[in-house]
């Protein structure tokens, strides 16, 4: 039996710990916050419950497999609900599209909203997207990162042509999608990895296909219940979770192998293996010393940090009924990405951003039938005072929140007279809450053809140290974080 310490109780850390405990290891999770979940956070106030992170479950079979790997059923722990409408989209010209949650209904709905022939355009694109998924998912997403794995995964010239590594998501979309609203719809999927569609790889075309092929899902009670269920299963297996414990460093032997972790108070906990469910920049900048850490850190710093987010939790009385997911598109999407990534000027708040609203129809998250708990999110540049965007500038956060509420009203979601209270999480707040540099949601973005090779591997160069979570391979988002946990636990192996 090996003693394993997991730093961080985000979804990746919880899932990896659960798998490792089930395979015979003695696992301890140390979490600096007072609750599990990491970026999958929750706020409870006055009978309202808000998820503060992911609000959509896709590829639910990965969640099912995570629990099954420990001899449990996810359906005994969570109530998964498939949404009939995946998302409601409002385009800049005022046209609205209710995207069905079942792929078979998609072409008809797109035709009805955007005009005859647009459904065929979208389905032709999804056919190519499925081909990309078929080629990439096993070697690129479900296997440990490595050049040999990547090369083996592309066995024929036709497979290389399929994923078009020289092409961007925007470029491949333009080949199939002639309606500008469909192009804008596709661009949004780059933000699922915190990226710019003009620079993100064409391989991200697989994201909308996976979402529409397996559907959009919600967890009754809110998505934080996923973190709670992972924690409970881990504890049932005999694992230990300690909250409010900050790790100050990862200690090593003279030969450079992991020896344990050092706590903020100076105490040391010994371990045979350490799994870091923390942002990789944080791990190699603050937790690990030495030449190896500096080399890896330099590689990470060559990548572009992912975008961050400005989030509002709105407690709404006498709320209008909205679809579960609603997207109010920006009038100028390129200007939005320019602002977020600091192009054509310094990083800056987006004047008229795309607004995402999650309005779950779930009586367990609100105090009365006529009230609603809205999670509102817009893309934002990371917090970088002195060298970029300073979200702690006095007055900026409340004034920007007021501006966004007015913008929502301009686009048909007017609740200005019905807000009981609001909670705001800026990129600076996100950095403080999750110890993520700048509040970058996904660690590194997928901007550029080399981005995947700059993302940190699950097996670090430090013997006995492994990384898991959205900033490590294969990337951010609930399904990929769960795959990261599967890869990491597989690399460590059974006791």
Explain this structure.
With 495 residues, this protein is of the alpha/beta class. The chain folds into three domains: 3-41 and 59-80 and 220-303 and 455-492, 3-Layer(bba) Sandwich (FAD/NAD(P)-binding domain); 118-215; 304-438, no CATH class. It is 36% helix and 19% strand. The chain is built from 17 helices and 19 strands. The chain has helices at residues 11-22, 60-68, 106-114, 118-141, 147-153, 157-163, 169-176, 180-188, 206-214, 224-236, 280-287, 291-301, 333-341, 396-410, 427-434, 451-454, 478-492, and strands at residues 3-7, 26-31, 42-45, 48-51, 80-82, 85-90, 96-100, 217-219, 240-243, 247-252, 258-263, 268-270, 273-276, 308-316, 325-328, 355-358, 372-380, 419-425, 465-467. Strand 6 (85-90) and strand 7 (96-100) form a beta hairpin. Helix 3 packs across helix 4 and helix 4 (118-141) packs across helix 5 (147-153). The longest helix has 24 residues, at 118-141. The radius of gyration is 22 Å and the shape is globular. The mean pLDDT is 93. Pathway: Carotenoid biosynthesis. Pfam families: Amino_oxidase.
């Amino acid at each position: 039996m090996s003693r394993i310490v997991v730093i961080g109780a985000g979804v990746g850390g919880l899932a990896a710990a659960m798998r490792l405990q089930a395979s015979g290891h003695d696992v301890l999770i140390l979490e600096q916050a007072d609750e599990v979940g990491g970026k999958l956070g929750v706020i409870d106030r006055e009978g309202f419950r808000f998820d503060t992170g992911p609000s959509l479950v896709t590829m639910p079979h990965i969640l099912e497999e995570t629990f099954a790997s420990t001899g449990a059923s996810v359906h005994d722990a969570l109530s998964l609900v498939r949404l009939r409408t995946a998302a409601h989209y409002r385009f800049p010209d005022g046209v609205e599209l209710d995207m069905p949650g079942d792929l078979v209904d998609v072409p008809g709905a797109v035709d009805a909203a955007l005009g005859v022939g647009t459904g065929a355009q979208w389905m032709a694109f999804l056919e190519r997207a499925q081909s990309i998924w078929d080629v990439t998912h096993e070697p690129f997403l479900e296997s440990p990162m490595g050049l040999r794995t990547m090369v083996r995964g592309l066995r024929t010239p036709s497979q290389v042509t399929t994923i078009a590594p020289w092409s961007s998501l925007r470029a491949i979309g333009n080949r199939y999608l002639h309606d500008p609203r469909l192009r804008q719809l596709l661009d949004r999927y780059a933000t699922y990895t915190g990226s710019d569609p003009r620079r993100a790889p064409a391989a991200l075309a697989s994201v909308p296909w996976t979402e529409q092929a397996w559907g959009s899902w919600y967890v009754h009670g809110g998505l934080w219940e996923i973190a709670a269920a992972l924690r409970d299963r881990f504890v049932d297996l005999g694992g230990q979770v300690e909250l409010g414990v900050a790790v100050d460093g990862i200690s090593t032997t003279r030969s450079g192998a992991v020896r344990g972790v050092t706590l903020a108070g100076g105490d040391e906990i010994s371990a045979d293996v350490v799994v870091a469910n923390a942002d990789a920049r944080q791990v190699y900048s603050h937790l690990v010393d030495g030449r190896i850490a500096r080399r890896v850190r330099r590689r990470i710093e060559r990548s572009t940090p992912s975008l961050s987010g400005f989030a509002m939790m709105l407690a709404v009385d006498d709320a209008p009924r909205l679809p579960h997911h609603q997207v109010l598109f920006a009038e100028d999407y390129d200007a939005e990405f320019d602002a977020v990534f600091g192009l054509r000027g310094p990083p800056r708040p987006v004047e008229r951003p795309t607004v995402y609203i999650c309005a779950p129809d779930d009586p367990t998250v609100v105090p009365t039938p006529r009230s609603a708990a809205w999670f509102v999110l817009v893309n934002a540049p990371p917090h970088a005072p002195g060298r970029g965007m300073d979200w702690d500038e006095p007055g900026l956060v409340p004034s920007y929140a007021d501006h966004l509420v007015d913008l929502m009203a301009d686009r048909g979601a007017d609740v200005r007279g019905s807000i009981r209270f609001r909670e705001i999480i800026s990129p600076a707040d996100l950095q403080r809450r999750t110890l993520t540099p700048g509040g970058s949601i996904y660690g590194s973005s997928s901007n550029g053809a080399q981005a995947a090779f700059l993302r940190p591997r699950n097996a670090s160069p430090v013997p006995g140290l492994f990384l898991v979570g959205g900033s490590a391979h294969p990337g951010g988002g609930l399904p990929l974080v769960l795959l990261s946990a599967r890869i990491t636990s597989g690399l460590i192996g059974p006791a």
